[in-house]
């Protein structure tokens, strides 16, 4: 622990074995003349880099307009109607729903950890699953990440450790104290309150907009290989003060930034946050939208004679707020980014929306022209001879109107129904957009509302949806979530100092329990892998398992050539996948975890009020005799001994019934080899019932 204390002590006296300057992660380097000169040069390069991203920023904003259904100057038709058909919006939301459900199974187990040791690190997996839920990856991060990847062409997240505190009030009872100063228990207590500081520390994951991210050079394949990585951050005064209090900003530089708050921004810098608020219907006035544009810069600088990864903050006109050694012990940058559609020789990916944007514009023009045509069709054109009908002013369309004219000289003409042709054009563009974005009816609710598909069509659509899903999900899992899990463990190792209570599943999910996980120790070498999609694929592979297992079991022993069939692992896996890690082990029970406990030890636990389950491997008569003696001596005030004896009696009855069934011949034949187990055909459904293949769960594959 002495080595770790060197990272945490800031004002400790110098020691002989103290860290060198280039490894001190708390030392401020911003006032070093060479570092200051280097950062000022870098600031000019950063401003030019964001200016060079103008074309990319405009393309991303155009793609977001397509998703947010914003009519802009790209529409060719300008008429009365202003309708936006949300084709791209619906397609992206269908992809988000599909991929989210694929990556986050209902079992609540998301991580798979492999250790160099023989034992499976269940505690580490439970801790990572706890952090996944605490960081709200499913509810808050993944949907935004998927939308950003499809629209901007880049999946990017920022991972950090947040230590929040709450100051709560707790009730307590204080003993009454005499005048002499001693507590007297016989006098009772008086109610009182006390203040308590409650900590809520853990990792935080945020989706990063590509317009705020800058990478030098832009030709690198991996963000870790970049020379400079910059993230544009918009901070309020409160946020800046928090950075000063946590010593992430230099106090003097931070106070100067607060004094010049309104000038710490660039007018030509794109602001994705404001556009996102506008899309959500939140309007911020000029006073409420004031912020300071701060650049978070990761780059290697020469400090103390060594080149090391440093984290710097700059704002305004070359204002340096901080420059320190990388604060993370793993020496990683806290931004993880990968392209959605990889382009050779470029870090940035291609947007999936831009290639279909013109089809969206054409569909909008068609539907607006059709809507205007439909409105004209509802208002007939009237022909009248002004000579025979001089009082045309009375020809007004109104309820009960009286026209003073010759009816033989009045004719009505209907406007052509162009909206029918417009509907066909809209459907044509919709089909093309859905095809380009990899959407089929199996991924959209009510996708087959017009006609009932056959079973083969449903199976084919779901197979295509699964293949397209696996392509995108694999990128996110391997390039994003695997690294997120690894970073979670590294942050936990560095920052957590207290035990945390998490839900842990034992070996093969024998029992779900709450366990206190101590801080991570040195010397553990793990590899981390996201397990969400594998769990979903396991669910879909169970049918093939059932068919294959039936073929194996029907194979004659002489055809196996010395091989043996062990059904236990398959049954155990299917039970955990279908019923979950909580119920599955109770359906398929591993006898290795049901070894009997000595009756004397059970007696002590039962007398203490604990419920002990009678195991099938127990010697029931011997146990019952010991428990009866214990109940007679202790009186069994809790009733647990009587309950335990009843369980032994039930187990004895089960064993006798099992012995009788072993001697009886099997009735009926089993399923054919490779056949699927299906439920019996039930009675005819009542009128109006929803068919099985149209159920919501059937559309999820």
How would you summarize this macromolecular structure in one to three sentences?
The chain has 701 residues and is an alpha+beta fold.
Fold topology:
Blueprint: H1 2-8, H2 33-52, H3 54-67, H4 87-103, E1 111-115, H5 122-134, H6 137-152, E2 154-175, E3 189-207, E4 213-216, E5 228-235, H7 237-245, H8 251-259, H9 272-279, E6 292-303, E7 306-315, E8 319-325, E9 335-339, H10 357-377, E10 381-384, E11 410-413, H11 419-436, H12 455-495, E12 500-505, E13 512-517, E14 526-530, H13 532-554, H14 568-587, H15 599-607, H16 620-634, H17 640-662
Antiparallel strand pairs: 1-14, 2-3, 2-9, 4-5, 5-6, 6-7, 7-8, 10-11, 12-13
Helix pairs in contact: 4-6, 4-12, 7-8, 10-11, 13-14, 15-16, 16-17
């Amino acid at each position: 622990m002495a080595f770790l204390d060197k990272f945490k002590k800031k004002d400790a006296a110098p020691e002989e074995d103290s860290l060198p300057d280039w490894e001190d992660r708390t030392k401020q380097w911003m006032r070093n003349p060479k570092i200051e000169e280097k950062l000022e040069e870098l600031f000019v390069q950063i401003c030019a880099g964001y200016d060079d991203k103008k074309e990319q920023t405009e393309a991303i904003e155009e793609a977001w307009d397509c998703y947010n259904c914003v009519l802009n100057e790209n529409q060719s038709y300008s008429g009365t109607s202003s309708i936006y058909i949300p084709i791209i919006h619906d397609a992206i939301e269908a992809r988000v729903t599909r991929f989210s459900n694929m990556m986050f199974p209902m079992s609540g187990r998301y991580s798979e950890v492999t250790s160099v040791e023989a034992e499976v690190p269940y505690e580490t997996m439970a801790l990572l699953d706890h952090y996944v839920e605490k960081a709200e990856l499913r509810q808050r991060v993944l949907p935004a990440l998927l939308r950003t990847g499809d629209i901007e062409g880049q999946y990017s997240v920022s991972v950090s450790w947040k230590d929040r505190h709450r100051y709560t009030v707790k009730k307590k009872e204080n003993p009454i104290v005499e005048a002499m100063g001693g507590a007297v228990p016989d006098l009772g207590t008086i109610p009182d309150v006390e203040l308590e500081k409650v900590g809520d520390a853990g990792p935080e994951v945020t989706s990063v907009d590509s317009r705020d991210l800058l990478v030098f050079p832009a030709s690198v394949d991996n963000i870790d290989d970049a020379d400079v990585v910059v993230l544009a951050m918009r901070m309020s005064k409160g946020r800046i003060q928090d950075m000063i209090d946590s010593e992430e900003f230099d106090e003097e530089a931070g106070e100067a930034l607060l004094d010049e708050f309104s000038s710490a921004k660039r007018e030509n810098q794109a602001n994705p946050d404001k556009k996102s608020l506008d899309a959500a219907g939140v309007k911020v006035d000029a006073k409420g939208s004031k912020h300071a544009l701060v650049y978070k810069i990761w780059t290697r600088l020469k400090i103390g004679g060594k080149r090391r990864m440093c984290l710097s903050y700059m704002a305004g006109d070359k204002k340096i707020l901080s420059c320190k050694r990388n604060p993370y012990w793993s020496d990683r940058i806290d931004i993880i980014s990968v392209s959605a559609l990889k382009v050779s020789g470029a870090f940035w990916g291609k947007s999936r929306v831009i290639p279909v944007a013109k089809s969206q514009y054409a569909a909008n023009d068609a539907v607006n022209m059709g809507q205007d045509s439909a409105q004209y069709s509802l208002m007939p054109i009237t022909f009248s001879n002004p000579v025979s009908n001089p009082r045309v002013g009375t020809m007004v369309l109104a309820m009960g109107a009286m026209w003073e004219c010759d009816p033989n000289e009045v004719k009505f003409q209907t406007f052509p129904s162009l909206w029918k042709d417009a509907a066909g054009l809209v459907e044509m563009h919709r089909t093309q957009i859905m095809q380009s974005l990899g959407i089929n009816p199996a991924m959209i609710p009510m996708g087959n509302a017009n006609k009932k598909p056959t079973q083969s069509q449903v199976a084919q659509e779901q197979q295509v949806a699964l293949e397209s899903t696996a392509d995108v999900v694999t990128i996110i899992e391997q390039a994003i979530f695997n690294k997120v899990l690894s970073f979670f463990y590294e942050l936990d190792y560095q920052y957590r100092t207290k035990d945390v209570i998490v839900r842990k599943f034992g070996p093969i999910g024998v029992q779900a329990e709450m366990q206190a996980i101590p801080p991570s120790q040195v010397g553990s070498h793990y590899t981390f892998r996201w397990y969400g999609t594998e769990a979903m694929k396991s669910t879909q592979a169970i049918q093939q398992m059932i068919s294959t297992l039936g073929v194996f079991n029907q194979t004659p022993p002489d055809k196996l050539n010395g091989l043996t069939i062990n059904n236990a692992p398959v049954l155990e896996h299917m039970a955990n996948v279908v019923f979950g890690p909580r119920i599955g082990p109770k359906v398929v029970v591993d006898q290795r975890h049901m070894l009997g406990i000595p009756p004397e030890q059970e007696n002590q636990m039962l007398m203490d009020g604990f419920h002990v389950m009678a195991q099938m491997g127990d010697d029931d008569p011997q146990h019952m005799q010991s428990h009866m003696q214990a109940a007679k001596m202790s009186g069994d005030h809790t009733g647990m001994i009587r309950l335990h004896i009843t369980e032994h009696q039930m187990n004895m009855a089960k064993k006798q019934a099992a012995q009788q069934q072993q001697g009886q011949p099997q009735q009926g034949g089993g399923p054919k080899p490779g056949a699927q187990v299906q439920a019996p055909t039930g009675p005819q459904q009542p009128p109006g019932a929803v068919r099985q293949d149209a159920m919501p769960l059937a559309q999820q594959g």
